[in-house]
Amino acid sequence: MKKMRKFALTGLAAGVALAAMSSTAQAQEQWTMTTTWPDNLDLIQIDRHWAELVNKLAGDEVQIEFRAGGTLMPGTEVFDATETGSIEAAGDWPGYWAGRSPAFSPLATTTSLFNGVDYLNWIMEWGGWELYQEVYGQYNMVYLPYGITNNESGFRGGTPIESIADLDGKRLRLSGRDQGRVLEELGGSQVTLAGGEIYQAIERGVVDGAEFSTPGVDYKAGFSEVADYWSVPGWHQSASVFGVMINQDAWDALSEETQEKLKIAAEATMAWSLAWSERESTEGTVKFLEDGTEINQLSEEDLAEIQRITNDVIVQGACEDPMHAKVYHSMISYLEHYANWRDVSVPYNMSRVTDDLPSLEEIEACM
């Protein structure tokens, strides 16, 4: 009898211990996360990579259920849903929200300015991370940049664009507030379309040409089937940043240790995304050429004119909005500071020309 009682007590203790272990193994927070990208656009891989890494690093503290774009709500609604707490997190491209604040535009991309490593440097060491927090913080969100791609493909369409003169009168699908302004100065007109609508728009002649993303993403979207011509380089988006919007209350519910794990996952994903997209871009370029796509390269003179117009557009935008000015002031200050090392290490250190940049003095005058 004593043995039976001892066995029962031992079994009870083991059960209590097992229950305690199970409760600590379960995630303390359950998050729903979606993105602006549907499953058929390869940029979703960046969002998915971060969510999976978080579940590995912090799965006993927070568990993310990731849903592809469009499965919970239209991609245009993820900002509001995250701000209000309807969902805890959403992957995005900041430029989609430039209508709310023009400062979102340079947080997403630049025209003829940053490359991918510039964004990495600026975010990690030159004050960029803090500016993402300041801009998104106005909307009850924390922001973790976790994706970087280098310059985008350029324009694709059924007619060649061999020089900036060929842009005159063209209707082109183009994302970004500042990018649209530069295009208008060059004589073209900006058409706004969701990524999933571009294929048919080119095919049916709704637009004369279109840009979307890097060659790897563009090829998987099927653009070689409808666009015979490809104008390079992608001056309109010299690099791009993607990240995750996190509802402030959901973020605050996490321990500092868990928050740090999410930041570490973002940094790791950012490094991976740059290498991943460069490999995808290389393989995509090879496939476009194999399919017979004709590449047209803009001249150095054309690119210098684009830079001149870009500089004017940046200063114009800075004088319209203080936060827009603050972001670009930080970016250009970085470029000027980094040039002390970059310029003396040419050609081995990303030999970006830094002698024709927007005027810091003119931007400061508007701040």
Automatic annotation (TrEMBL):
InterPro entries: DctP_fam, SBP_TakP-like, TRAP_DctP_sf
Gene symbol of the encoding locus: dctP
Organism expressing this protein natively: Halomonas rhizosphaerae
Keywords: Signal
Lineage of origin: Bacteria, Pseudomonadati, Pseudomonadota, Gammaproteobacteria, Oceanospirillales
Pfam families tied to this protein: DctP
Signal peptide: 1-27
The protein's name in its UniProt record: TRAP transporter substrate-binding protein DctP
